[in-house]
Amino acid sequence: MIAIITGDIINSQNTDSELWLPKLKNLLGSWSSTPENWEVYRGDEFQLKCNVDEVFSKSLMIKSLIRTFENLDVRLAIGIGNEVFLSEKITESNGSAYVNSGRLLNDIKTEGRTLAIKTENDKVNRDLNILFKWASIDFDSWSVATAEIIHRLLTNPELTQEELAKELNITQSSVSQRIKRSNFDLIQETDLFFRKKIAEL
């Protein structure tokens, strides 16, 4: 079983891609190699293959990165399933994980959602998508400052509040307040719940 994230950037036409595209490519490139494991195509769409248990945390790293840019957001469709054909390019590989993810992206565009999952298990789909609908109310309203702190904590969990304060040029108490406002503890709990639920597949 593998996980595929198919995503597209919301409002990309109103923002200079030279601002966000290199950072997105750097993030994806820090996980695996292109074009076999990830690729950006048609300017503002992308696909990423990763381990099933890591897919939610990786989705949040992508989401928090894109939300650090004013007026930008990202739609993320997670597909979980098999891989029956492996090509040198991810966009040419195939299997139920790819089909689930690609079709789901079209569905959530129509529904106006920004995060959803499709697996081969209807009960897991129902449970996780209810969770994602609630969680997205929070994720979709992240300010640039909130997204920035979440992104740094997710990509570098060892960072102390003092180190974060130095990096962001703010006080340690401001860092503490931002972390509280971001519901970061709840994000970590949600990730643990996701991993347990996915283990049922």
From TrEMBL:
Provide the HTH cro/C1-type domain boundaries: 159-177
Entry-linked InterPro entries:
Cro/C1-type_HTH, SatD, WH-like_DNA-bd_sf, WH_DNA-bd_sf
Pfam families from the xrefs? Answer: SatD
Name used for this protein in its record = SatD family protein
Source species of the chain = Kaistella montana
